[in-house]
């Protein structure tokens, strides 16, 4: 967490141009050298961030990808809790009114997935077939089997159900 705070400080001091807490938007500014004239000019980017596979928005802070909702919470409140939760469960809605501090236990209680998914042997074979064909992403496979993306990654990387996964890849 210390590295995260260092990156957030850098973002605030060097990259941040404007913040709108009520919309959850960050604008950045950086100095760039013009290719033809060689003169420096300021380049502004509006509402920075990109969506990851889990639906969270990430931003570049000091050369590292960081979660935008954690950065916005830190900028607004001045401290960073263990976890930052989205009230409405929309991970891309980073308005400050939608963010709240929470601990790990409290955050997992509201989770869509309660505990580990108990796969049947047939389901594991089906998951392995889908992974082997490379036709679907881990998230779309997880949606089919009503489990987390992490559970699918565990099978793909043979951390879970090695006996069956070894038959496929």
Task: Tell me what the structure shows.
With 169 residues, the protein is an alpha+beta fold. It has 2 domains: 2-109, Homing Intron 3 (I-Ppo) Encoded Endonuclease, Chain A (Alpha-Beta Complex), CATH 3.90.75; 121-168. The chain is 39% helix and 23% strand. The protein contains 7 helices and 8 strands. The protein has a 3-stranded antiparallel beta sheet with strand order 1-2-3. A hairpin with a 2-residue loop joins strand 5 and strand 6. Helix 5 (138-145) packs across helix 6 (149-156). The radius of gyration is 20 Å and the shape is elongated. The mean pLDDT is 87.
Major beta sheet summary? 3 strands, antiparallel
Number of strands: 8
Q: What is the name of the CATH architecture of the largest domain?
A: Alpha-Beta Complex
Portion of residues in beta strands equals 15-25%
| Overall spatial form | elongated
Give helix and strand order, one letter per element, not per position.
HEEEEEEHEEHHHHH
Would you tell me the overall average pLDDT? 87
Computed structural class: alpha+beta
Query: For the record, what CATH class of the largest domain applies?
Result: Alpha Beta
Distance between the termini: 36 Å
Low-confidence residue ranges: none
Strand order of the largest sheet: 1-2-3
User: Looking at CATH, which topology of the largest domain would you report?
Assistant: Homing Intron 3 (I-Ppo) Encoded Endonuclease, Chain A
Helix content: 25-40%
How many helix segments?
7
Radius of gyration: 20 Å
**Can you tell me the number of structural domains?**
2
């Amino acid at each position: 967490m210390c590295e995260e705070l260092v990156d957030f400080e850098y973002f605030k001091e060097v990259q941040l141009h404007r913040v709108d807490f009520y919309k959850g938007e960050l604008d950045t500014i950086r100095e760039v050298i013009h290719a033809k004239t060689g003169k420096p000019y300021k380049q502004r980017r509006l509402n920075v961030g990109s969506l990851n596979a889990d639906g969270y928005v990430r931003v570049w802070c000091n050369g590292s990808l960081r979660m935008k909702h954690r950065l916005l919470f830190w900028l607004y409140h001045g401290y960073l809790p263990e976890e930052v939760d989205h009230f409405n469960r929309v991970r891309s809605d980073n308005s400050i009114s939608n963010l709240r501090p929470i601990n790990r236990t409290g955050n997992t209680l509201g989770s869509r997935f309660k505990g580990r998914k108990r796969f049947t042997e047939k389901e594991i074979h089906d998951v392995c077939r889908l992974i082997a064909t490379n036709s679907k992403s881990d998230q779309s496979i997880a949606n089919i089997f009503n489990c987390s993306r992490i559970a699918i990654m565990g099978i793909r990387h043979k951390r879970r159900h090695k006996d069956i996964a070894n038959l496929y890849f």
